[in-house]
Design brief:
mainly alpha, Serine Threonine Protein Phosphatase 5, Tetratricopeptide repeat
């Protein structure tokens, strides 16, 4: 009798104290309400600490709302992706495991469960890629893709699936040849440019400013318009949306600056200075390098200050070689100091990584340890900054007969690029042809890009001729920028099909 009472009491206590766990599982839900949206917008403003305080308060007042953990993941993602410190990546991985375990408690009766899991996993993939973990990143993308596709089948009217699917499908469209075959062999990933663009267009058309992820949807649409559809005007219109303006996000200002650099009426420099001036707890030091480079292209010696800041403060993996290369150029351009140029290029050679194209190019220049022609470097920088008239003035004053043999090809190439920038296409075509004929066996990228540019010019004049030049671009194999130039050629060829 006594034993029976004890068993009943123990059973009651077990049920009683396990009830909160059961209730928590049963009541777990996703609610992307306005208070959570405020925290999300703080994160997009890179005010991570302030956003974390908001989220911590919501965990107390709204403990069963697991959308909080989805949005919290953005803080860690931007910290890792922008600051690039390996310790943060390790911490990010551990936190993601815990967040996914929590989200798995939610009953599978809502489309937000797999949507949130897929978004978190995709952010991990992007973070991994920053640190060279490309294989693991690929498997993460595949995992997220499966979740989104399953979610799409289960909830066909749930539009948010396409927010990330559009990016995955457009990215798949950029893969070609061996790279694409490897991805298709080991993953279930699929898609192309057109599919990705159509998905984000459909989502964008049904989106309004009150929806939770409106800022992201508009930003993705602008990116697709600019980089995939090459529609600069539309991209600018989208990124200048009042909702994005009012957010005052360094990320949005960064996008604006990249979309408006060709337009002298828009002060790219001012946009970058504004982005740097916004108070934030997540560092975005790359803005300093970008502003320093933009000022260097404009012929403004204050570029030294921003390049120095990046070099002295950034603790990440990428763009350090590029920053030191730009610093070397600034010493040569503004001070005529060949000794300083060589010192900075020596530092460039011994520091940083070569994972991204800009760093790889800077490293290759550092191995040469040769001082470039100062006037041709000025022309290159002015052209990169779209100051074509100023660049042409320098070229017209140069006497090319006194140039070194290695500089002759670059002189013709720079002339072609400047004429192209000034819309003098007939003359530009002739100069590009000369570059192709003289430099197709040169290890530098000039002939390869000359063929690409003629292919782009001819798409409005003669499609078959355009295809010939784009195929020629693919047949020229320079030692630098080959992958990016060939990828652009394939992209243009695809558009002409």
């Amino acid at each position: 009798m006594i034993k029976c009472c004890w068993l009943r009491l123990i059973s009651f206590l077990v049920l009683y104290f396990s009830a909160p766990s059961f209730t928590r599982c049963q009541s777990a839900h996703f609610d992307y309400h306005d208070n959570l949206k405020e925290a999300y917008h703080l994160i997009l403003q890179l005010k991570g600490q302030k956003a974390q305080h908001r989220l911590d308060s919501l965990k107390i007042s709204d403990p069963h709302n697991y959308a909080i953990y989805h949005i919290e993941n953005y803080i860690d993602f931007f910290t890792v992706f922008l600051e690039e410190e390996i310790e943060d990546l390790d911490l990010f991985k551990d936190r993601i495991k815990k967040r996914l375990i929590l989200i798995d408690q939610v009953e599978s009766t809502t489309p937000y469960k797999d949507f949130a899991k897929a978004e978190i996993i995709l952010q991990l993939a992007l973070a991994r890629s920053k640190f060279g973990e490309h294989i693991r990143a690929g498997f993460d993308i595949n995992r997220a893709h499966k979740l989104l596709k399953q979610n799409q089948k289960k909830y066909p009217n749930f539009q948010l699936n396409t927010k990330s699917l559009s990016i995955i499908h457009a990215t798949m469209g950029s893969l070609k040849g061996f790279q694409k075959r490897i991805v298709e062999l080991f993953t279930s990933l699929e898609g192309n440019y057109e599919q990705g663009v159509n998905e984000i267009k459909a989502l964008y058309s049904k989106n309004d400013d009150t929806s939770f992820f409106s800022v992201e949807i508009k930003s993705i649409r602008a990116l697709m318009s600019y980089h995939v559809e090459k529609n600069v005007i539309e991209a600018r219109e989208i990124i200048n949306d009042p909702l994005l303006d009012n957010l005052r996000s360094p990320l949005v200002l960064f996008l604006k600056s990249s979309f408006t650099k060709e337009d002298k009426e828009v002060a790219q420099i001012e946009l970058l200075k504004e982005a740097i001036g916004i108070q934030k707890s997540i560092d975005f030091d790359y803005l300093y390098l970008l502003l320093g480079t933009t000022l260097l292209q404009a012929g403004d010696s204050s570029c030294h200050n921003y390049l120095d800041y990046f070099i002295n403060n950034f603790k990440g993996r990428h763009y350090m070689k590029e920053a030191m290369q730009k610093k070397a150029w600034a010493c040569l351009i503004f001070d005529g100091d060949e000794k300083k140029y060589l010192e900075w290029m020596a530092r460039c050679k011994d520091n940083g990584f070569t994972q991204v194209g800009e760093d790889e190019s800077a490293h290759k220049e550092s191995l040469l340890m040769q001082v470039p022609n100062r006037d041709l470097l000025r022309v290159r920088l002015l052209s990169d900054g779209f100051y074509y008239t100023e660049a042409l003035n320098i070229l017209e004053k140069m006497d090319s007969t006194f140039l070194e043999d290695t500089d002759q090809l670059e002189y013709v190439y720079r002339y072609a690029r400047v004429l192209q920038g000034l819309s003098k296409t007939k003359e530009a075509i002739g100069y590009f042809d000369s570059v192709i004929n003289k430099g197709k066996d040169d290890n530098r990228y000039f002939a390869c890009n000359a063929a690409l540019q003629n292919g782009i010019i001819y798409q409005e004049i003669n499609v078959s001729k355009s295809k010939e030049y784009l195929e020629l671009c693919l047949n020229i194999k320079p030692g630098e920028h080959r992958n990016s130039l060939h990828q652009k050629a394939r992209s243009w060829l695809q558009k002409l099909q």
